[in-house]
């Protein structure tokens, strides 16, 4: 399974988590914070490829929180062999 995420849709932490919940089909009980994201990513039990497009735009909008969000994906990738993550840093199209 491949999921394409659009960093332009993550203008605030709340928007980011709402978008991730929808795009990644997280359950209703998803806690919408970085700890909950970690829990979801590290328990994926099937191969999944996540590509974050416009990560530069997301980092501009979210600042330090955006860095932590990307770090959560990268660390979860090291923890869970089913998860594969990459980012594209395009800013404008």
Describe the structure.
This protein is α/β, with parallel strands linked by helices. It contains 4 helices and 3 strands. It has a single domain (2-87), classed as 2-Layer Sandwich (Barnase, Chain D), CATH 3.30.370. The chain has helices at 13-23, 34-42, 55-62, 64-79; strands at 2-6, 48-53, 83-87. A 3-stranded parallel sheet has the order 1-2-3. The longest helix has 16 residues, at 64-79. The radius of gyration is 12 Å and the shape is globular. The model has no long low-confidence stretch (mean pLDDT 94).
CATH superfamily: Barstar-like
What is the number of strand segments? 3
* Biggest sheet descriptor: 3 strands, parallel
SSE order, one letter for each helix or strand: EHHEHHE
What low-confidence regions span 5 or more consecutive residues with pLDDT below 50? Answer: none
CATH class: Alpha Beta
Which bin fits the share of residues in helices? 40-55%
- C-alpha termini separation: 25 Å
Q: Mean pLDDT, nearest integer?
A: 94
Query: Any idea of the CATH topology?
Result: Barnase, Chain D
Number of domains: 1
Order the strands across the largest sheet as they lie in space: 1-2-3
């Amino acid at each position: 399974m491949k999921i394409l995420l659009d960093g332009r849709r993550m203008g605030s932490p709340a928007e980011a988590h709402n978008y991730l919940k929808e795009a990644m089909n997280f359950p209703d009980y998803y806690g919408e914070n970085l700890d909950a994201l970690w829990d979801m990513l590290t328990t994926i039990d099937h191969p999944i490829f996540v590509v974050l497009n416009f990560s530069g735009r997301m980092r501009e909008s979210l600042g330090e929180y955006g860095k932590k969000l990307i770090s959560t994906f990268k660390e979860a990738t090291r923890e869970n062999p089913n998860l594969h993550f990459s980012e594209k840093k395009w800013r404008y199209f």
